[in-house]
Amino acid sequence: MGAVAAPFDRDLAGDFARIERLVAGARDAGVRLLALPEACLGGYLLSMDGDPGDGGPPALDPDGPEIRRLAAIAGDMVVCAGYCEAAGANRYNAVVCVHGDGVLGHHRKVHQPLSEDALFAPGEAFEAFDTPVGRLGMMICYDKAFPESARSLALAGAEIVVCVSAWPASRTDPAPDLADDRWTRRFDLFDRARALENQVVWLSANQSGTFGSLRFVGSAKIVDPGGEVVAATGVTGGTAVAEIDIRRALGTARRSMGHLRDRRPAAYNRDAGSAGGAVGSWG
């Protein structure tokens, strides 16, 4: 499996050319599941101040020619890729999972940071689905800051979670070395924590380079169910590749300490109330 850190922009033709190269390289490396970044079809926002500036990324029909082209590029591989979804009068920050046979799964970003809601409507659910490489769940960027996101996918039977991101470095206190940036550390911490909490295989793809006023942290990685990073690109970008026997890895991680098995839902079933209230019921 592979997770990509690479730059993407408004040039859709250029984005597809880059995707074709990345998929071809991954296929040559034996990759069967490849995670591409958030907004890799058309680029992310130019800033996080609520003004898309250039109108934002192109809104694409989930049943349209671009997604069909993505599926054709995927061929015998399973590929997850972020894009701006057109749905009536709304736009959604979305990720689609495709195979040569068509669309396998779809997710709309639920949690919206800063002023992202100025352009995108929020998604409403996290759903797992079956693929040729195993049962999979997807989320986008800020979704992973909420443990309920990954837990709901794990409870739905997801063996693999793919999180695609356009995660930038700190805007208020940037570090000279991107590897030392506090938002790079948070990005990496969320990836490892979510994998370990839920004992799932975790693929984290991210944008790299710069776009508008944003500098992305890269740091694509693959994390095993014990929270160990088994492959990573670092902040410079590239494709992290690892070979994992999914069933064996999950079986080993869950054999003694089964985090899903050992849950006590009745203890969590309290009214969430307000932001400062007790933990809510999320099964």
Sum this structure up briefly:
This protein is 23% helix and 27% strand.
Describe this structure in words.
The chain is α/β, with parallel strands linked by helices and 283 residues long. The chain has a single domain (2-268), classed as Nitrilase/N-carbamoyl-D-aminoacid amidohydrolase. 23% of the residues lie in helices and 27% in strands. It is built from six helices and 15 strands. It has helices at residues 12-28, 65-74, 147-155, 182-198, 246-254, 265-268, and strands spanning 2-6, 33-35, 59-60, 78-87, 90-99, 102-108, 128-131, 134-140, 160-165, 201-207, 210-211, 214-215, 221-223, 229-232, 238-241. Strands 1, 2, 3, 4, 5, 6, 7, 8, 9, 10, 13, 14 and 15 form a 13-stranded mixed β-sheet that branches. A two-stranded antiparallel ribbon has the order 11-12. A hairpin with a 2-residue loop joins strand 4 (78-87) and strand 5 (90-99). Helix 3 (147-155) runs parallel beside helix 4. It is globular, with a radius of gyration of 18 Å. The chain starts with a strand and ends in a 15-residue tail after the last helix.
Tell me the total number of β-strands. 15
Number of helices: 6
Structural class from helices and strands?
alpha/beta
What is the CATH superfamily label?
Carbon-nitrogen hydrolase
What is the makeup of the main sheet? 13 strands, mixed
Question: Helical residue percent?
Answer: 10-25%
State the low-pLDDT regions, or none: 276-282
Count of structural domains: 1
What is the CATH class designation? Alpha Beta
Order of helices and strands: EHEEHEEEEEHEHEEEEEEHH
